[in-house]
Amino acid sequence: MHIRGDHVELVVGGRLDVRSAADARTVLHTAVDDGVGDLVLDLSELDSWDATGLGVIMGAHRRAGRCGRRLVLRGVPPQMQRLLVATRLHRILAIEGGIGVESLPRV
């Protein structure tokens, strides 16, 4: 997993899973705490995530809300869009451009 960017936009790549969760959490929390306005999380380079990785994103979402900021997901890969729809988190998280639920294949 790699994260690059500043306190306005971060690009997450590789795998966001149990092995990388602690590092990702630290980077995301620092970005939320040190910035202002929306924090855009670009997931277009993300290969996969597991429940722990999704928990890191939800934790960053909650932390951003407490800081008066908004976490916005950009470039969510299709398989991850399906997971967000299945868990109904697409209704909670801000997703740039939204998710076209009707265009996702049924699982």
From TrEMBL:
Gene3D superfamilies: STAS domain (3.30.750.24). One of its GO terms (molecular function) is anti-sigma factor antagonist activity. Pfam families: STAS_2. Residues 1-107 form the STAS domain. Belongs to the anti-sigma-factor antagonist family. This is Anti-sigma factor antagonist. It comes from Streptomyces phaeoluteigriseus.
